[in-house]
Design goal:
Two copies of one chain form a homodimer. With about 120 residues, chain A is mainly α. In chain A, strands 1-2 form a two-stranded antiparallel sheet. In chain A, a hairpin with a 5-residue loop joins strand 1 and strand 2. In chain A, helix 1 packs across helix 3 and helix 4 packs across helix 5. Chain A is flat and about 75 Å long. Chains A and B meet through helix 3, helix 4 and helix 5 of A and helix 3, helix 4 and helix 5 of B. Chain A binds a DNA duplex (30 and 30 nucleotides) through helix 2. Chains A, B: This is MerR family transcriptional regulator. Chains A, B: InterPro entries: DNA-bd_dom_put_sf, MerR-type_HTH_dom, MerR_fam.
Chain lengths: ~120, ~120
DNA sequence: CTTGCCTCTGACATGGATGTGAGGTTTTAG
DNA sequence: CTAAAACCTCACATCCATGTCAGAGGCAAG
């Protein structure tokens, strides 16, 4: 499949796909004329990359983790495995942060609602 | 307290504090000579702002929520309350995403560990 | 062959929070 | 009084994923 189709099927812009390649996160076969061709599995790979970006990882960080994902049995994955565990911890911490933040929002909303009700009682009176 | 102390106590750069003010998220009393002065409570406010930034909200979004937080009983908080509920939903969705991503990382790590063990058996043999 | 769409490279633009530096005033400590 | 440290404003720089545009080539259908 060519880049346009991969873009459509993964919901990522053509521009971004080229960028991922530039960052070493995605590879492609080139036709004699230089056009990129992708395998079916690349759709899922791109979705995975998107997921990591959404989780706040940078291209560089993702690049460091990929050896672990791509060839999980090579010895270079020892370092990648550590790196991955480290990112997992960061992610967990971030999730905890967000849960806390959500609680704060809930508290603020509850307070606001109480205030609003109080105001409405005044209006009703 | 002056801006340097607030920065130190909240762990945010002086630059950022001025930026928050510029974005309407933080206010300060000015001394006759123009220096900013803050109240004790502003430390916590800045921490809260940081939290919202970390949760991925933009200055503009935070600004829209603040009426709700600052004066929970005014009528302008009706819109802010909706906005807030909306952001809360986004946040929940994001958290769910992150949990899923963490699961994927866990799966990748498990696979990598299996591969590594297999390799080590080879070495041992 | 031509028209239209897709792709290529390369480069510049964007947005948002923050860093950084210049040039000048205020505050504080000795 | 003086020197150091903190503050002021203004403006330009940075990072990073993307958008966007220009100019050129590739490829299928009429």
């Amino acid at each position: 499949m060519r880049i346009g189709e991969l873009a459509r099927r993964s919901g990522v812009s053509v521009r971004s796909l080229r960028y991922y390649e530039e960052q070493g996160l995605l590879t492609s076969e080139r036709s004699p004329s230089g056009q990129r061709h992708y395998a079916e599995g690349d759709v899922e790979r791109v979705l995975f990359l998107q997921r990591l970006y959404t989780a706040g990882l940078s291209s560089r960080t993702i690049h460091e983790l990929l050896p672990c994902v791509d060839s999980p049995s090579l010895e270079n994955s020892r370092a990648a495995l550590e790196r991955m565990a480290q990112e997992r911890e960061k992610l967990s911490a971030h999730i905890a942060e967000l849960l806390h933040t959500r609680d704060l929002l809930d508290a603020a909303m509850a307070a606001a609602r109480r205030g609003k009700e109080c105001l409405e009682e005044h209006e009703a009176a």
